[in-house]
Amino acid sequence: MPDQRHPEGTASIPNTESADLRRQPVGRPGFIEAFSAFSHRNYRIFFGGQVISLIGTWLQTTAEGWLVYELSGSSVALGLIRFANMLPFALLALWGGIVADRISRRKILIFTQSASMILALLLALLVYLKVIEVWHVAVIGMGLGIANAFDVPARQSFVVDLVGKEDLINGIALNSSMFNLARVAGPAMAGALIGIVGMAGCFLVNGLSYIAVIFSYSKLDLPKFEKRTDNPPFLQAIREAYCYIAKDPPLRAIMILVSTFSMFGMSFNVLMPVFAKDVLHGDAKAFGILMAFNGLGALIGGLSLASKGKAFERRTLVYFGLFGCCVFLSIFAISKIFWLSCAMLVISGFFMIIFLASANTGTQLRSPDALRGRIMGFYSLCFLGMSSVGGLMMGALAKLFGAPTAVVIGMTICLIVGILFAGRIKLTPKRRRG
After folding, report:
1. What pLDDT score does 34 carry?
2. Where is mean pLDDT largest: 98-107, 377-386, 399-408?
Protein backbone atom coordinates (compact mmCIF):
# COMPACT_ATOMS: atom_id res chain seq x y z
CA MET A 1 0.00 0.00 0.00
CA PRO A 2 1.53 3.37 -1.01
CA ASP A 3 2.64 5.69 1.71
CA GLN A 4 -0.11 8.32 1.97
CA ARG A 5 2.34 10.84 3.30
CA HIS A 6 4.34 10.64 0.06
CA PRO A 7 1.84 9.89 -2.74
CA GLU A 8 3.13 8.01 -5.76
CA GLY A 9 4.41 10.31 -8.48
CA THR A 10 5.79 12.98 -6.16
CA ALA A 11 9.31 14.08 -5.41
CA SER A 12 10.82 16.56 -2.97
CA ILE A 13 12.14 19.90 -4.17
CA PRO A 14 13.20 22.95 -2.17
CA ASN A 15 10.51 25.37 -1.05
CA THR A 16 11.53 28.86 -2.08
CA GLU A 17 10.21 30.34 1.15
CA SER A 18 11.92 28.11 3.72
CA ALA A 19 14.62 25.55 4.32
CA ASP A 20 12.05 22.76 4.04
CA LEU A 21 11.42 20.51 1.08
CA ARG A 22 7.97 20.22 -0.46
CA ARG A 23 6.44 17.68 -2.83
CA GLN A 24 5.81 18.25 -6.52
CA PRO A 25 4.24 15.90 -9.08
CA VAL A 26 6.84 14.61 -11.48
CA GLY A 27 5.35 11.52 -13.14
CA ARG A 28 7.41 8.53 -14.14
CA PRO A 29 10.83 9.37 -15.59
CA GLY A 30 11.39 7.82 -18.99
CA PHE A 31 13.30 8.19 -22.23
CA ILE A 32 11.14 11.03 -23.55
CA GLU A 33 11.25 12.92 -20.25
CA ALA A 34 15.03 12.54 -20.19
CA PHE A 35 15.18 14.81 -23.25
CA SER A 36 12.12 17.00 -22.63
CA ALA A 37 14.17 20.23 -22.97
CA PHE A 38 14.68 19.37 -26.65
CA SER A 39 10.97 19.98 -27.25
CA HIS A 40 11.90 23.68 -27.17
CA ARG A 41 13.26 24.96 -30.50
CA ASN A 42 15.46 27.58 -28.85
CA TYR A 43 17.10 24.99 -26.63
CA ARG A 44 17.86 22.69 -29.61
CA ILE A 45 19.61 25.55 -31.43
CA PHE A 46 21.47 26.61 -28.29
CA PHE A 47 22.54 23.03 -27.57
CA GLY A 48 23.94 22.43 -31.08
CA GLY A 49 26.08 25.56 -31.08
CA GLN A 50 27.32 24.97 -27.54
CA VAL A 51 28.43 21.39 -28.26
CA ILE A 52 30.72 22.51 -31.09
CA SER A 53 32.13 25.46 -29.15
CA LEU A 54 32.70 23.51 -25.92
CA ILE A 55 34.57 20.73 -27.73
CA GLY A 56 36.88 23.45 -29.01
CA THR A 57 37.20 24.94 -25.52
CA TRP A 58 38.21 21.61 -23.97
CA LEU A 59 40.57 21.04 -26.88
CA GLN A 60 42.28 24.32 -26.01
CA THR A 61 42.21 23.70 -22.23
CA THR A 62 43.95 20.36 -22.66
CA ALA A 63 46.53 21.63 -25.13
CA GLU A 64 47.18 24.72 -23.01
CA GLY A 65 47.89 22.65 -19.87
CA TRP A 66 50.37 20.49 -21.77
CA LEU A 67 51.97 23.57 -23.39
CA VAL A 68 52.51 25.32 -20.05
CA TYR A 69 53.96 22.21 -18.43
CA GLU A 70 56.33 21.70 -21.36
CA LEU A 71 57.43 25.35 -21.26
CA SER A 72 57.93 25.46 -17.49
CA GLY A 73 58.06 21.90 -16.12
CA SER A 74 56.45 23.34 -12.97
CA SER A 75 53.24 22.48 -11.13
CA VAL A 76 53.36 25.98 -9.64
CA ALA A 77 53.21 27.46 -13.16
CA LEU A 78 50.07 25.40 -13.84
CA GLY A 79 48.51 26.83 -10.70
CA LEU A 80 49.56 30.38 -11.63
CA ILE A 81 47.90 30.06 -15.05
CA ARG A 82 44.69 28.89 -13.40
CA PHE A 83 44.96 31.79 -10.94
CA ALA A 84 45.47 34.31 -13.78
CA ASN A 85 42.44 32.93 -15.61
CA MET A 86 40.12 32.91 -12.61
CA LEU A 87 41.20 36.03 -10.69
CA PRO A 88 39.42 38.49 -13.04
CA PHE A 89 36.42 36.20 -12.93
CA ALA A 90 36.39 36.28 -9.13
CA LEU A 91 36.61 40.08 -9.12
CA LEU A 92 33.97 40.71 -11.77
CA ALA A 93 31.47 37.81 -11.54
CA LEU A 94 29.09 39.72 -9.26
CA TRP A 95 29.09 42.66 -11.64
CA GLY A 96 28.45 40.17 -14.43
CA GLY A 97 25.40 38.93 -12.52
CA ILE A 98 24.02 42.47 -12.27
CA VAL A 99 24.56 43.03 -15.99
CA ALA A 100 22.73 39.74 -16.71
CA ASP A 101 19.67 41.15 -14.89
CA ARG A 102 19.77 44.47 -16.79
CA ILE A 103 20.85 43.76 -20.39
CA SER A 104 19.65 41.24 -22.98
CA ARG A 105 21.42 38.00 -22.12
CA ARG A 106 21.71 37.08 -25.79
CA LYS A 107 23.61 40.30 -26.54
CA ILE A 108 25.94 39.65 -23.60
CA LEU A 109 26.67 36.10 -24.81
CA ILE A 110 27.34 37.12 -28.41
CA PHE A 111 29.81 39.76 -27.19
CA THR A 112 31.63 37.46 -24.73
CA GLN A 113 31.88 34.59 -27.22
CA SER A 114 33.30 36.95 -29.87
CA ALA A 115 35.93 38.19 -27.41
CA SER A 116 36.86 34.59 -26.50
CA MET A 117 37.25 33.74 -30.19
CA ILE A 118 39.68 36.62 -30.73
CA LEU A 119 41.79 35.54 -27.72
CA ALA A 120 41.93 31.92 -28.93
CA LEU A 121 43.10 33.02 -32.38
CA LEU A 122 45.75 35.26 -30.78
CA LEU A 123 47.08 32.31 -28.79
CA ALA A 124 47.21 30.21 -31.97
CA LEU A 125 49.22 32.95 -33.71
CA LEU A 126 51.76 33.26 -30.88
CA VAL A 127 52.34 29.50 -30.84
CA TYR A 128 52.58 29.35 -34.65
CA LEU A 129 55.21 32.12 -34.67
CA LYS A 130 57.12 30.22 -31.92
CA VAL A 131 57.29 33.24 -29.64
CA ILE A 132 54.92 31.90 -26.99
CA GLU A 133 55.93 32.22 -23.34
CA VAL A 134 54.18 31.33 -20.11
CA TRP A 135 53.35 34.97 -19.39
CA HIS A 136 51.58 35.23 -22.76
CA VAL A 137 49.32 32.35 -21.76
CA ALA A 138 48.66 34.06 -18.41
CA VAL A 139 47.68 37.38 -20.01
CA ILE A 140 45.37 35.71 -22.52
CA GLY A 141 43.92 33.69 -19.63
CA MET A 142 43.17 36.93 -17.79
CA GLY A 143 41.33 38.19 -20.87
CA LEU A 144 39.27 35.00 -20.96
CA GLY A 145 38.56 35.41 -17.25
CA ILE A 146 37.14 38.90 -17.86
CA ALA A 147 34.94 37.60 -20.69
CA ASN A 148 33.75 34.64 -18.60
CA ALA A 149 32.83 36.91 -15.68
CA PHE A 150 30.01 38.25 -17.87
CA ASP A 151 29.42 35.11 -19.91
CA VAL A 152 28.84 32.55 -17.16
CA PRO A 153 26.14 34.33 -15.07
CA ALA A 154 24.28 35.26 -18.27
CA ARG A 155 24.53 31.72 -19.71
CA GLN A 156 23.58 30.03 -16.42
CA SER A 157 20.45 32.17 -16.05
CA PHE A 158 19.72 31.97 -19.82
CA VAL A 159 18.57 28.34 -19.64
CA VAL A 160 15.28 29.26 -17.97
CA ASP A 161 14.62 31.70 -20.85
CA LEU A 162 14.97 28.79 -23.29
CA VAL A 163 12.95 26.04 -21.57
CA GLY A 164 10.94 27.67 -18.76
CA LYS A 165 10.85 26.46 -15.16
CA GLU A 166 8.96 23.26 -16.02
CA ASP A 167 11.91 21.80 -17.94
CA LEU A 168 14.66 23.65 -16.07
CA ILE A 169 15.93 20.55 -14.23
CA ASN A 170 16.15 18.64 -17.50
CA GLY A 171 17.75 21.55 -19.33
CA ILE A 172 20.49 21.94 -16.71
CA ALA A 173 21.15 18.18 -16.63
CA LEU A 174 21.40 18.09 -20.43
CA ASN A 175 23.68 21.14 -20.29
CA SER A 176 25.92 19.17 -17.96
CA SER A 177 25.82 16.23 -20.37
CA MET A 178 26.71 18.54 -23.26
CA PHE A 179 29.57 20.08 -21.28
CA ASN A 180 30.94 16.66 -20.45
CA LEU A 181 30.42 15.26 -23.93
CA ALA A 182 32.83 18.04 -24.88
CA ARG A 183 35.14 16.96 -22.02
CA VAL A 184 35.30 13.51 -23.63
CA ALA A 185 35.75 14.65 -27.23
CA GLY A 186 37.95 17.72 -26.64
CA PRO A 187 40.82 16.15 -24.67
CA ALA A 188 40.78 13.04 -26.88
CA MET A 189 41.04 15.27 -29.95
CA ALA A 190 43.82 17.27 -28.28
CA GLY A 191 45.84 14.13 -27.56
CA ALA A 192 45.63 13.20 -31.25
CA LEU A 193 45.89 16.68 -32.82
CA ILE A 194 48.91 17.84 -30.82
CA GLY A 195 50.96 15.26 -32.70
CA ILE A 196 49.32 16.03 -36.08
CA VAL A 197 48.76 19.80 -36.32
CA GLY A 198 50.66 20.92 -33.22
CA MET A 199 49.59 23.25 -30.43
CA ALA A 200 48.84 26.12 -32.82
CA GLY A 201 46.41 23.94 -34.77
CA CYS A 202 44.53 23.04 -31.58
CA PHE A 203 44.10 26.69 -30.63
CA LEU A 204 43.04 27.60 -34.18
CA VAL A 205 40.34 24.91 -34.18
CA ASN A 206 38.99 26.30 -30.91
CA GLY A 207 38.93 29.85 -32.28
CA LEU A 208 36.92 28.75 -35.31
CA SER A 209 34.50 26.72 -33.16
CA TYR A 210 33.13 29.93 -31.63
CA ILE A 211 31.52 30.75 -34.98
CA ALA A 212 28.98 27.97 -34.36
CA VAL A 213 27.80 29.27 -31.00
CA ILE A 214 27.68 32.91 -32.13
CA PHE A 215 25.57 31.86 -35.13
CA SER A 216 23.24 29.80 -32.91
CA TYR A 217 22.62 32.75 -30.57
CA SER A 218 21.66 34.93 -33.54
CA LYS A 219 19.01 32.38 -34.61
CA LEU A 220 17.16 32.15 -31.29
CA ASP A 221 13.53 33.28 -31.35
CA LEU A 222 13.19 35.15 -28.06
CA PRO A 223 10.64 37.69 -26.85
CA LYS A 224 11.76 41.30 -26.90
CA PHE A 225 13.91 42.08 -23.89
CA GLU A 226 12.20 44.48 -21.48
CA LYS A 227 14.56 46.77 -19.62
CA ARG A 228 13.95 47.20 -15.92
CA THR A 229 13.32 50.68 -14.65
CA ASP A 230 14.06 49.98 -10.98
CA ASN A 231 17.78 49.27 -11.26
CA PRO A 232 19.40 49.82 -7.83
CA PRO A 233 23.03 50.99 -7.50
CA PHE A 234 25.76 48.34 -7.72
CA LEU A 235 26.33 47.82 -3.99
CA GLN A 236 22.61 47.79 -3.24
CA ALA A 237 22.01 45.27 -6.04
CA ILE A 238 24.71 42.99 -4.63
CA ARG A 239 23.37 43.43 -1.10
CA GLU A 240 19.86 42.39 -2.18
CA ALA A 241 21.12 39.12 -3.63
CA TYR A 242 23.48 38.49 -0.71
CA CYS A 243 20.72 39.04 1.86
CA TYR A 244 18.40 36.71 -0.01
CA ILE A 245 21.06 33.96 0.02
CA ALA A 246 21.97 34.61 3.66
CA LYS A 247 18.34 34.21 4.76
CA ASP A 248 17.84 31.00 2.80
CA PRO A 249 19.60 28.08 4.61
CA PRO A 250 19.66 25.65 1.63
CA LEU A 251 21.07 28.33 -0.70
CA ARG A 252 23.64 29.25 1.92
CA ALA A 253 24.67 25.60 2.33
CA ILE A 254 24.94 25.10 -1.46
CA MET A 255 27.19 28.15 -1.83
CA ILE A 256 29.53 26.95 0.94
CA LEU A 257 29.71 23.39 -0.41
CA VAL A 258 30.33 24.55 -3.99
CA SER A 259 32.98 27.06 -2.83
CA THR A 260 34.83 24.38 -0.88
CA PHE A 261 34.70 21.90 -3.74
CA SER A 262 35.86 24.55 -6.20
CA MET A 263 38.89 25.41 -4.05
CA PHE A 264 39.95 21.94 -2.93
CA GLY A 265 38.20 19.49 -5.26
CA MET A 266 37.97 20.82 -8.82
CA SER A 267 41.58 21.97 -8.68
CA PHE A 268 42.75 18.40 -9.30
CA ASN A 269 42.34 19.28 -13.00
CA VAL A 270 45.20 21.77 -12.67
CA LEU A 271 47.54 18.93 -11.71
CA MET A 272 46.45 16.50 -14.43
CA PRO A 273 49.58 17.11 -16.58
CA VAL A 274 51.69 16.21 -13.52
CA PHE A 275 49.77 12.93 -13.02
CA ALA A 276 50.01 12.09 -16.73
CA LYS A 277 53.72 12.81 -17.12
CA ASP A 278 55.36 12.27 -13.72
CA VAL A 279 53.08 9.89 -11.81
CA LEU A 280 51.84 7.64 -14.65
CA HIS A 281 54.82 8.26 -16.98
CA GLY A 282 52.71 9.06 -20.02
CA ASP A 283 52.77 11.59 -22.87
CA ALA A 284 50.33 14.10 -24.39
CA LYS A 285 48.11 11.26 -25.62
CA ALA A 286 47.93 9.78 -22.10
CA PHE A 287 47.04 13.24 -20.76
CA GLY A 288 44.21 13.52 -23.27
CA ILE A 289 42.94 10.05 -22.37
CA LEU A 290 42.84 10.86 -18.64
CA MET A 291 40.89 14.06 -19.26
CA ALA A 292 38.54 12.25 -21.64
CA PHE A 293 37.78 9.46 -19.16
CA ASN A 294 36.89 11.98 -16.48
CA GLY A 295 34.58 13.68 -18.97
CA LEU A 296 33.05 10.32 -19.93
CA GLY A 297 32.06 9.66 -16.32
CA ALA A 298 30.56 13.14 -16.05
CA LEU A 299 28.65 12.60 -19.31
CA ILE A 300 27.13 9.39 -17.92
CA GLY A 301 26.28 11.23 -14.71
CA GLY A 302 24.56 14.06 -16.59
CA LEU A 303 22.45 11.69 -18.68
CA SER A 304 21.55 9.66 -15.59
CA LEU A 305 20.47 12.83 -13.81
CA ALA A 306 18.40 13.95 -16.80
CA SER A 307 16.48 10.66 -16.92
CA LYS A 308 16.23 9.72 -13.22
CA GLY A 309 17.04 12.87 -11.26
CA LYS A 310 13.42 13.79 -10.48
CA ALA A 311 12.94 10.51 -8.64
CA PHE A 312 15.32 11.55 -5.85
CA GLU A 313 15.46 14.36 -3.31
CA ARG A 314 17.89 17.01 -4.42
CA ARG A 315 19.55 17.05 -0.99
CA THR A 316 20.30 13.33 -1.42
CA LEU A 317 21.78 13.92 -4.88
CA VAL A 318 23.98 16.80 -3.66
CA TYR A 319 25.61 14.81 -0.87
CA PHE A 320 25.68 11.53 -2.79
CA GLY A 321 27.60 13.27 -5.56
CA LEU A 322 29.96 15.18 -3.27
CA PHE A 323 30.97 12.24 -1.08
CA GLY A 324 31.30 9.81 -4.00
CA CYS A 325 33.52 12.21 -5.95
CA CYS A 326 35.81 12.80 -2.96
CA VAL A 327 36.29 9.07 -2.30
CA PHE A 328 37.08 8.06 -5.87
CA LEU A 329 39.30 11.06 -6.62
CA SER A 330 41.35 10.11 -3.56
CA ILE A 331 41.80 6.59 -4.98
CA PHE A 332 42.81 8.14 -8.32
CA ALA A 333 45.40 10.29 -6.55
CA ILE A 334 47.23 7.33 -5.00
CA SER A 335 46.99 5.07 -8.06
CA LYS A 336 50.16 4.33 -10.03
CA ILE A 337 48.38 2.06 -12.57
CA PHE A 338 47.13 3.78 -15.72
CA TRP A 339 43.96 1.70 -16.27
CA LEU A 340 42.98 2.03 -12.59
CA SER A 341 43.49 5.80 -12.75
CA CYS A 342 41.24 5.94 -15.83
CA ALA A 343 38.55 3.90 -14.06
CA MET A 344 38.64 6.13 -10.99
CA LEU A 345 38.33 9.24 -13.17
CA VAL A 346 35.22 7.80 -14.86
CA ILE A 347 33.55 7.06 -11.52
CA SER A 348 34.58 10.36 -9.90
CA GLY A 349 33.38 12.26 -12.97
CA PHE A 350 29.97 10.59 -12.60
CA PHE A 351 29.66 11.66 -8.96
CA MET A 352 31.07 15.14 -9.63
CA ILE A 353 28.38 16.05 -12.15
CA ILE A 354 25.63 14.65 -9.92
CA PHE A 355 26.81 17.06 -7.22
CA LEU A 356 27.37 20.13 -9.39
CA ALA A 357 24.24 19.83 -11.58
CA SER A 358 22.03 19.19 -8.54
CA ALA A 359 23.54 22.19 -6.74
CA ASN A 360 23.02 24.37 -9.84
CA THR A 361 19.41 23.25 -10.24
CA GLY A 362 18.65 23.83 -6.56
CA THR A 363 20.13 27.33 -6.79
CA GLN A 364 18.06 28.31 -9.83
CA LEU A 365 14.80 26.88 -8.48
CA ARG A 366 15.24 28.88 -5.29
CA SER A 367 16.07 32.13 -7.13
CA PRO A 368 13.30 34.66 -7.89
CA ASP A 369 13.31 35.97 -11.47
CA ALA A 370 14.32 39.50 -10.46
CA LEU A 371 17.42 38.21 -8.64
CA ARG A 372 18.35 35.21 -10.78
CA GLY A 373 21.26 36.83 -12.63
CA ARG A 374 22.77 38.19 -9.43
CA ILE A 375 22.32 34.95 -7.49
CA MET A 376 23.89 33.02 -10.37
CA GLY A 377 26.70 35.58 -10.24
CA PHE A 378 27.30 34.53 -6.63
CA TYR A 379 27.04 30.87 -7.62
CA SER A 380 29.51 31.41 -10.48
CA LEU A 381 31.87 33.15 -8.08
CA CYS A 382 31.68 30.16 -5.74
CA PHE A 383 32.01 27.60 -8.54
CA LEU A 384 34.67 29.18 -10.76
CA GLY A 385 35.99 32.22 -8.95
CA MET A 386 37.15 30.34 -5.87
CA SER A 387 39.10 27.95 -8.09
CA SER A 388 41.56 30.80 -8.78
CA VAL A 389 42.74 30.49 -5.20
CA GLY A 390 42.39 26.71 -5.31
CA GLY A 391 44.56 26.32 -8.40
CA LEU A 392 47.35 28.40 -6.87
CA MET A 393 47.08 26.55 -3.57
CA MET A 394 47.04 23.07 -5.14
CA GLY A 395 50.05 23.94 -7.26
CA ALA A 396 51.97 24.99 -4.14
CA LEU A 397 50.86 21.89 -2.20
CA ALA A 398 51.95 19.68 -5.10
CA LYS A 399 55.39 21.31 -5.08
CA LEU A 400 55.75 20.73 -1.32
CA PHE A 401 54.21 17.27 -0.93
CA GLY A 402 53.69 15.93 -4.45
CA ALA A 403 50.53 15.94 -6.60
CA PRO A 404 48.96 12.77 -5.08
CA THR A 405 49.18 14.09 -1.50
CA ALA A 406 47.87 17.50 -2.57
CA VAL A 407 44.74 15.92 -4.09
CA VAL A 408 44.12 13.70 -1.05
CA ILE A 409 44.39 16.74 1.25
CA GLY A 410 41.86 18.60 -0.91
CA MET A 411 39.40 15.70 -0.93
CA THR A 412 39.67 15.31 2.84
CA ILE A 413 38.78 18.97 3.36
CA CYS A 414 35.76 18.63 1.05
CA LEU A 415 34.56 15.55 2.95
CA ILE A 416 34.88 17.28 6.33
CA VAL A 417 32.93 20.37 5.19
CA GLY A 418 30.31 18.13 3.56
CA ILE A 419 29.80 16.21 6.79
CA LEU A 420 29.52 19.45 8.79
CA PHE A 421 26.73 20.70 6.51
CA ALA A 422 24.99 17.36 5.92
CA GLY A 423 22.14 18.15 8.32
CA ARG A 424 21.56 21.79 7.39
CA ILE A 425 18.65 21.15 4.98
CA LYS A 426 15.71 19.61 6.80
CA LEU A 427 12.82 17.66 5.34
CA THR A 428 9.31 19.02 5.68
CA PRO A 429 7.69 17.73 8.88
CA LYS A 430 5.18 15.07 7.90
CA ARG A 431 1.59 16.11 8.36
CA ARG A 432 -1.07 13.76 9.61
CA ARG A 433 -4.11 13.31 7.48
CA GLY A 434 -7.39 13.81 9.20
Report:
1. 62
2. 399-408
* CA-based nearest residue to 276, from 199, 336, 207: 336
Cβ-contact 257, 322 below 8 angstroms: yes
* N-terminal to C-terminal alpha carbon distance within the chain: 18
The CA distance from 7 to 282, in Å, is 54
pLDDT band at 4 (very low <50, low <70, confident <90, very high): very low
Query: Which letter does DSSP use for residue 36 in this model?
Result: G
Nearest residue to 266 via CA among 152, 174, 352: 352
| Strand bridging mode 21-25 / 10-14 | antiparallel
* Amino acid found at 265: G
Q: 230: number of CA atoms within 13 Å, CB side?
A: 3
- Give residue-wise pLDDT tens across range 291-349: 778 878 887 887 777 776 565 677 778 888 899 999 999 999 999 999 999 999 999 98
Indicate the burial class of 370 (C-beta count within 10 angstroms; 0-12, 13-18, 19 or more): middle
Phi and psi, residue 283, nearest 5°: -120, -165
Rounded alpha-carbon distances, angstroms, from residue 211 to 42, 51, 120, 174, 214: 17, 12, 12, 22, 5
Under 8 Å CB-to-CB from 325, ≥6 apart: which residues?
A: 261, 265, 348, 351, 352, 355
Beta bridge partners of 25: 10
User: Which pTM value belongs to this model?
Assistant: 0.66
- Residue 431 backbone phi and psi in degrees, to 5: -100, 140
**Where is 118: in which H helix or E strand?**
helix 105-128
3-state secondary structure of 19: coil
Domains and CATH numbers, the chain: 31-220+233-420 (1.20.1250.20)
pLDDT above 70 for 27: no
**SS3 (DSSP) at 157:** helix
DSSP state of 104: -
